[in-house]
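Task: sequence design from structure.
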């Protein structure tokens, strides 16, 4: 059975969970062809992705002429479907012109993939209920097969219910990585939503994550954007500095808030805080392995965006590190307060500072929490187990054809 995997970009350091999922499915015998709408710009590449790159279809690399003739060819060969597609896009216009243009882009991507691919998929799966889902739906329509989608966080929390309903319309299954996201999807209008939605946590291969002796530094990892709440971490560091506690604090990631965070670091006089920028996965893993704790001060952004279950928390716990994180999104599904980490309120630098101070002053507590974190990952978030719902679904789809 051949599965076409529709992704926005591949590989992406912020989406290592997708790479892990693909590798786990391939190891279980699922034949996957990756179709990425674009290449990542200037990112380091996870070495595990290198063997897959030669077979990836990069839609944006296809010349305009080829895309144009792909569209024309599909209109000629699938006239009825293309007419219904056009009517569907027209009905999207009153909802949002931008949404309609995105859907049109998804349709063009689908036709380009169908024209370029040298084989026919038995099933199409997309990651994110966004343009990749649009492309998956239209591609499945051209091939006459089923399609499914994995929804995550920003695609669920920042889009209107009406747009989410249209983006997931026709999907045979919708996989979601947190109970928090699952509840929102179940509440969408429409028939049989609960029958289509499958909870499937992300996972890691715990054997690949081995912690080291604590060096005392704090680490935070993520895109430098509002929902990550890194300015709250800076405020907590300022509070600790006032108590003559100045541990090295490393923030790894890049994003639109970099200039603001740099300004805030200078304003607060935090010489112990470093913005490391974007680093390759092995370097990030090494810095986490040497840390005393991971801090994730996530919050709900003004546009409603928040994390589901950040994969960096899974990785830190697999490295036997205690985690201090806020209780937004699905984080409480992973962290048990006081057992394998601390759950704190969002936008509360005082509570964050107190939690950091507690772990810095009690290394034995940090070690106990880290050990409990590792055991929790091994017992509930091992990739070979978390991928089973999707594996069983794709295997059943194969048998039903």
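Answer:
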């Amino acid at each position: 059975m051949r599965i076409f995997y529709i992704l926005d970009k591949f590989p992406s350091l912020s989406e290592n969970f997708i790479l892990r999922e693909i590798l786990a499915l391939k190891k279980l015998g699922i034949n996957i062809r990756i179709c990425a709408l674009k290449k990542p710009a200037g990112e380091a590449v996870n070495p595990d992705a290198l063997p897959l790159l030669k077979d990836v279809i990069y839609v944006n690399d296809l010349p305009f002429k080829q895309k144009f003739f792909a569209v024309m060819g599909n209109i000629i060969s699938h006239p009825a479907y293309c007419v219904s597609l056009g009517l569907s896009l027209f009905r999207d216009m009153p909802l949002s012109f931008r949404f309609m243009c995105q859907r049109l882009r998804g349709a063009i991507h689908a036709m380009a993939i169908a024209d370029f691919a040298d084989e026919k998929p038995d099933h199409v799966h997309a990651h994110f209920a966004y343009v990749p889902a649009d492309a998956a739906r239209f591609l499945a329509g051209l091939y006459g097969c089923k399609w499914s989608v994995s929804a995550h966080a920003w695609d669920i929390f920042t889009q209107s219910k009406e747009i989410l309903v249209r983006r997931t319309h026709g999907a045979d299954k919708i996989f979601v990585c947190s109970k928090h996201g699952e509840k929102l999807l179940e509440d969408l209008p429409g028939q049989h939503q609960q029958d289509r939605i499958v909870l499937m946590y992300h996972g890691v291969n715990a054997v690949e994550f081995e912690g080291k002796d604590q060096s005392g530094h704090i680490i935070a990892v993520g895109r430098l954007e509002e929902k990550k709440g890194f300015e709250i971490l800076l405020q907590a560091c300022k509070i600790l500095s006032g108590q003559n506690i100045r541990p090295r604090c490393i923030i790894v990631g890049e994003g639109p808030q970099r200039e603001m965070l740099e300004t805030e670091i200078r304003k607060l006089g935090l010489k112990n805080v470093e913005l490391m920028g974007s680093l390759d996965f092995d370097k990030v893993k090494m810095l986490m392995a040497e840390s005393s704790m991971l801090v994730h001060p996530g919050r709900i952004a003004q546009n409603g965006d928040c994390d589901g279950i950040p994969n960096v928390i899974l990785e830190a716990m697999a490295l036997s590190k205690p985690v201090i994180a806020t209780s937004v999104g699905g984080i409480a599904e992973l962290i048990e307060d006081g057992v394998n980490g601390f759950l704190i309120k969002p936008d509360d630098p005082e509570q964050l500072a107190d939690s950091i101070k507690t772990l810095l002053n009690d290394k034995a507590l940090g070690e106990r929490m880290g050990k409990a974190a590792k055991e929790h990952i091994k017992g509930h978030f091992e990739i070979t187990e978390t991928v089973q719902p999707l594996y069983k679904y794709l295997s059943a789809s194969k048998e039903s054809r």
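The longest helix spans residues 97-116.
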